[in-house]
Amino acid sequence: MLSVTNLRKTYGSGGQAVEAIRDLTLTVDKGEFVCIVGPSGAGKTTMLKCLCGLLKPSSGTVTLDGAPVTGPPKEIASVFQDYSRSLMPWFTVQRNVGLPLRNRYRSAADRAERVATALDAVGLSGFGDRYPWQLSGGMQQRVAIARGLAYAPEILLLDEPFASVDAQTRADLEDLILRVRDDTGVTMLLVTHDIDEAVYLADRVVVMSARPSVVLETVPVDLPRPRDQVTTKRLPRFAELRAHVLTLIRRTALDGAAPTPDQHSTIGARR
Ligand SMILES: Nc1ncnc2c1ncn2[C@@H]1O[C@H](COP(=O)(O)OP(=O)(O)OP(=O)(O)O)[C@@H](O)[C@H]1O
């Protein structure tokens, strides 16, 4: 569905140039849940911005259903980490959620219904008339997720969406996202620093090297679904996958970028 081929991105030029991404190739299938992990500064956000058409790659291609992405595609919605900057404090929750729908759905009744369904999906029906600042951090992040869902995207890109909330809220939001994925079949691509989170959520974990980044390894996650915060994380296989991804990230953080991109995971061979 989404295909990235030999993506390279350098910011600036000459002596000021920063080579963020050297060579990324990956595909995301319809309905798949892919998590991206990598050391800080590896270019994860840069990659997401290239995928949703907000940044132009220096070279390489991004295609969606075979068509090149040259600007923000209507099939993709994004949720970013910092809800305090992505929600408009002077708009109510329902207006915030309805904002991106104005250009997509003409009927106000249709928009209102989509907003109500999305708020219901994240457990916030009844909070539509509140303002973001009247809600807790976790609730505000659920509003941001509802805004992504109301748009009914085919692909939801999530960039560190749970980074600014406490551990318990984070676990609740992870389960919310899994439930939404099961209910809607939306394709998910999520960037996280949290390796447990990546293994818990994903069908595949893509490990990026340190900058300038390449895909170090793609790790298939063969844990059974539905997943559960306690039983899934107790499985020996969970510990094995987690340790494998952690080792890769530690190694690349120490050694720098990998010499050869896209090695296939040996840990996934049992699949
Ligand atoms: N607009 C920009 N101009 C110049 N350099 C940039 C710009 N945006 C990002 N960079 C640089 O590109 C590299 C990759 O940044 P990016 O934010 O994509 O990494 P990341 O993996 O998402 O980081 P983190 O995990 O810390 O959020 C970094 O070295 C960063 O300083």
From TrEMBL:
Domain of life (superkingdom):
Bacteria
Name all ABC transporter domain ranges. 2-235
State any single GO MF term: ATP binding
Keyword tags? ATP-binding, Nucleotide-binding, Transport
Q: What is this protein called?
A: ABC transporter ATP-binding protein
